[in-house]
Amino acid sequence: MAQKKSLFQEFTKGIVKENPVLCLMLGTCPTLAVTTSASNAIGMGVAATAVLVCSNAVISMLRKVIPDKVRIPAYITIIAGFVTIVQMIVKAFSPAINDSLGIFLPLIVVNCIILGRAEMYASKNSVIPSIIDGLGMGVGFTAALLLMGIIREVLGAGTIFGIEVLPVQILIFILPPGGFFVYGMLIALANKLNRKAGKKIVDSPCQGCPMSKTCKNANIGCDAESTDKEVAANAI
User: Fold this and answer.
1) pTM for the whole thing?
2) How far apart are CA 21 and CA 142, in angstroms?
3) pLDDT in tens, 59-79
């Protein structure tokens, strides 16, 4: 029972408490670029989730075999292999989505969410928890993209999944400024909900960095309860 509860917590953390887009601020480039429509958002989210789950599983299985000095190149090679497979599948079964996502589909290789979970979680845990972690982070990523995509498509084009729902079109919402505006509003909403839940909000730019645990400056300004003395000590 305890193990099932732990796996459930690993799954849900990526959706709510540690949402990679709205809380950890990772993967912002594809988030802003492909969320001009809900269908594009789902396509990118599902593709990234598939790569994340598969790469987490393989990296976890090989974590004791991959030499520490070459772990990052090894992770990137594994991730690139799965991205190539996913891209071929998308091209074969959904060429329209492939054309819409464009360069951002192969750029999943360098998505900070995937490499970050490989370094921070999959390389330190067994296969099943790593798969659950990848699935949770992928679902959180997809949910954030879909929410942005729906808002921007409805307000900017008056449609949702190509079906007209509003007679009025505010074109700025499908342009970059509109993307930044919607993204900022969703981040503010996520922070407010986390504060209500009693969760500390991390303001550090080091948040989500794979090296944050070993960097001596990683915690400066991150803990809302830190005193000036503690911050100064960390900076030495």
Assistant:
1) 0.78
2) 9
3) 999 999 999 889 999 999 999
